[in-house]
């Protein structure tokens, strides 16, 4: 394993490896243990007691964080001409259809979220091999395939995030930046955790949230106590 840098080692000294921290403590520590000069992202990772190979145990959803993510989200609206003005007024960074489908086929993916209307999904389907692996394919379950284009764009811009458990049962989400107040990080984390708890599959047995960690970009992981996570 590669040796950690001096900054990381200094940050890690602020943490007791034998302790689990409350959510309040973690939101304070994640700011203190950031090791980079830029405004680092704050991430949460949850290990769930689900088997994603079974469709009825797939945990997937979206949540609008009360304080946003701190990131500038670039939105592409793939819509017919009748909806294009609505999408522009709602704040979409790119608006169009055929010209952007062609750009994406040529490899362009300089965007964070794609919003589309149901009537154009037939055209977009062929982009699955490009958009799928990057998590950019519009999906009705995440609210990015809708006729309410303006609302969908505004929600994404305001801090709506999508999440999906991976094949190992891990759920990952960015819940803010180290420049946020600890109270803002806590409120974002609580909203994310409450949403995950509501999505617990009926077929999931035993512990649902097995472990939870918070970290900043390139910073050490902070283990959260289960009691502070499941009591949301």
Give a concise summary.
Part of the 50S ribosomal subunit. The protein is of the alpha/beta class and 232 residues long. It has helices at 6-12, 23-32, 81-90, 98-105, 121-124, 128-131, 149-158, 182-198, 226-230, and strands at 41-48, 60-64, 75-78, 94-96, 113-116, 160-164, 170-177, 209-216, 222-223.
Element string (H = helix, E = strand): HHEEEHEHEHHHEEHEEH
Tally of individual domains: 2
CATH architecture of the largest domain: 2-Layer Sandwich
Number of strands: 9
Give the strand content: 15-25%
CA-CA gap between termini: 36 Å
Using the coordinates shown, work out and report the CATH topology of the largest domain: Ribulose 1,5 Bisphosphate Carboxylase/Oxygenase
Could you state the CATH homologous superfamily of the largest domain? Ribosomal protein L1/L10, rRNA-binding domain
Q: Please give the radius of gyration in angstroms.
A: 19 Å
Total of DSSP H or I helical runs spanning 4+ residues: 9
Shape descriptor reads: globular
Structural class based on helices, strands and sheet pairing: alpha/beta
Biggest β-sheet: count, sense, barrel? 4 strands, antiparallel
Helicity level, as a percent range? 25-40%
Q: What is the residue-averaged pLDDT?
A: 90
Q: Pick out the low-confidence regions.
A: none
Protein name: Large ribosomal subunit protein uL1
Subunit structure: Part of the 50S ribosomal subunit.
Keywords: Repressor, Ribonucleoprotein, Ribosomal protein, RNA-binding, rRNA-binding, Translation regulation, tRNA-binding
Family: Belongs to the universal ribosomal protein uL1 family.
């Amino acid at each position: 394993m590669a040796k950690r840098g001096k900054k990381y080692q200094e940050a890690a000294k602020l943490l007791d490896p034998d302790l689990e921290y409350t959510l309040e403590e973690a939101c304070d520590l994640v700011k203190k243990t950031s090791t980079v000069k830029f405004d680092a992202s704050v991430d949460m990772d949850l290990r769930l007691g689900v088997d994603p190979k079974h469709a009825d145990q797939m945990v997937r959803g979206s949540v609008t964080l009360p304080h946003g993510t701190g990131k500038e989200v670039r939105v592409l609206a793939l819509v017919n001409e009748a909806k294009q003005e609505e999408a522009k007024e709602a704040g979409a960074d790119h608006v169009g259809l055929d010209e952007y489908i062609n750009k994406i086929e040529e490899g362009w993916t300089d965007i964070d979220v794609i919003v589309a209307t149901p009537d154009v999904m037939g055209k977009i389907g062929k982009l699955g091999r490009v958009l799928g692996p990057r998590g950019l394919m519009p999906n009705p379950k995440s609210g990015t395939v809708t006729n309410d284009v303006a609302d969908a764009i505004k929600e994404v811009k305001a801090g709506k995030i999508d999440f999906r458990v991976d094949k190992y049962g891990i759920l990952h989400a960015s819940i803010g930046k180290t420049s946020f107040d600890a109270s803002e990080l806590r409120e974002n984390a609580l909203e994310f955790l409450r949403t995950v708890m509501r999505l617990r599959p009926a077929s999931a047995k035993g512990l649902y949230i097995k472990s939870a960690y918070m970290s900043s970009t390139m910073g050490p992981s902070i283990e959260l106590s289960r009691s502070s996570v499941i009591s949301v």
